[in-house]
TrEMBL record:
Keywords, comma-separated and alphabetical: Membrane, Transmembrane, Transmembrane helix
Protein name per the record: DUF2254 domain-containing protein
Residues that span the membrane, as ranges: 20-40, 64-90, 111-132, 144-164
Length: 424
């Protein structure tokens, strides 16, 4: 039963990021509210409210039809315009910054809720229109349902104003960078906290039994408790050879087991691992480094030529790298003082190289950007690190950056300036 709940939770996390999830949920809610109001109208709720607050009720069937029809037409136009704004936002973010930003922007719950409110109100008004007869008098007219439809339409107008404000904020690069940073920061702090006070050792896995995943896709998430439970039942240790966030090939080695496993057990392990065709920062913090790096690289391209955005991106990368230096590279998961599971991780050296390789290529000709990158690396040299070799790796990247910058810069003044920063 516990495994079923964990899988349901993983499935919910996957579908929650889809742009249609909350709009569909709220649209269904609007339908059921309309059905509930039809039942309450059959019980005479409008007549009772009419006797208490007659000023709030519509007393003519034709007026009720006209009002709801106007609300319905306006809401459909409003929804079409809002969807167009979302598509424009996604298109602009993809062309100006990075296509990798799209999953995060699509999963913005504020946009989803607003679009869902529109759909719920439209469905409610449609089904309420069905229950109105033009010849009905004020005591048989579903006046309370009509009043509720008008109130929901007003709520949609308020939501639209907020939607315009939020769209204008969402497309600003500072807000995009801040959102990416906050998601990665939360994920990294959670991982760092899980490593506290843990003495971690794991056997050599080079001669363990290897098994493929059987399916391809991005390694998105795994049900740790279920996998650890299977490890205890089979009395084995498991090493997952692919880091989270990377693409898993169908026939490549994915699992290694200390003891041989039959096909049924291997399938049980794989069934507790989520594969997807997209990536989310909430599941994989390294995606934040990729996204921010791509924003900086795109900003330094000749077509965009926006060094200010690149500098902002490097500031966020500096803070994230300083936080990443507090995390270890072993990927061992300790549960009840047992180390039955290890997951491969993107090491600090690999992460730093992947970021710096892209930035060096596009920024080595700009002395301001080289100075900023040197400032970032010198800052990291002075930060506390979970492993002693982190500072050495930072120094190696600094030397590589300086060498490439010297080869690319033509001005001796620029070369002298960056050498001065390097030696400071």
């Amino acid at each position: 039963m516990k495994k079923i709940f964990v899988r349901i939770f993983d499935f919910f996390n996957t579908v929650e990021s889809k742009i249609a999830f909350y709009p569909t949920l709220l649209a269904i809610t609007g339908f059921f509210v309309a059905a509930l109001m039809m039942y309450l109208e059959g019980q005479g709720i409008s007549k009772e409210i009419m006797d208490v607050l007659p000023l709030l009720m519509v007393e003519d069937g034709d007026t009720a039809l006209s009002v709801l029809s106007a609300c319905l037409g306006g809401l459909i136009s409003l929804m079409v315009f809002s969807f167009s704004m979302v598509m424009l936002l996604l298109s602009q973010a993809s062309s100006n910054y990075s296509p990798r930003l799209l999953p995060g922007l699509i999963s913005d719950k504020r946009h989803q809720f607003i679009l869902g409110i529109y759909l719920a109100t439209i469905l409610y008004n449609i089904f309420t229109l069905f229950s109105i007869e033009p010849s009905e008098d004020k005591y048989t007219l579903p006046g309370f349902s009509v009043l509720l439809g008008i109130v929901m339409t007003i709520i949609c107008l308020v939501a639209f104003i907020y939607f315009i404000h939020n769209i204008s904020q969402s497309i600003q690069i500072n807000n995009i960078l801040d959102t990416i940073f906050e998601s990665a920061e939360i994920r990294l702090k959670k991982l760092i906290k899980s490593e506290e006070d843990q003495n971690k050792t794991f056997p050599d896995t080079s001669k363990w039994h290897a098994y493929p995943a059987g399916s391809s896709g991005y390694f998105q998430n795994l049900s740790i408790n279920n996998i650890l439970q299977i490890c205890e039942e089979e009395k084995t240790k498991i090493y997952i050879t692919i880091p989270k966030g990377l693409f898993v090939l169908k026939n490549a080695t994915f699992l290694k087991s200390e003891k041989p496993l039959d096909d049924k057990v291997v399938k049980a392990f794989v069934s507790n691992i989520s594969f997807a065709r997209g990536e989310l920062i909430e599941d994989n913090y390294t995606l934040a480094f990729k996204q921010i790096t791509e924003i900086a690289v795109k900003a330094m391209s000749p077509g965009i030529n926006d060094p200010g955005t690149a500098i902002n991106a490097i500031d966020y990368l500096t803070d994230l790298f300083a936080l990443r230096m507090q995390k270890q590279d072993n990927g061992i998961i300790v549960h009840n003082k047992k180390t039955n599971l290890r997951v491969a991780v993107v090491t600090f050296k690999e992460l730093l190289f992947n970021v710096m390789a892209s930035l060096r290529t596009y920024c080595k000709h700009d002395p301001i950007m080289v100075s900023k990158l040197l400032w970032m690396l010198k800052y990291l040299q002075n930060q506390p690190a979970a492993e002693v070799n982190y500072h050495t790796q930072v120094s190696e990247e600094m030397e590589t950056l300086l060498k490439q910058a010297k080869d690319s810069l033509e001005s001796e003044t620029d070369v002298a300036a960056i050498e001065k920063i390097y030696k400071a």
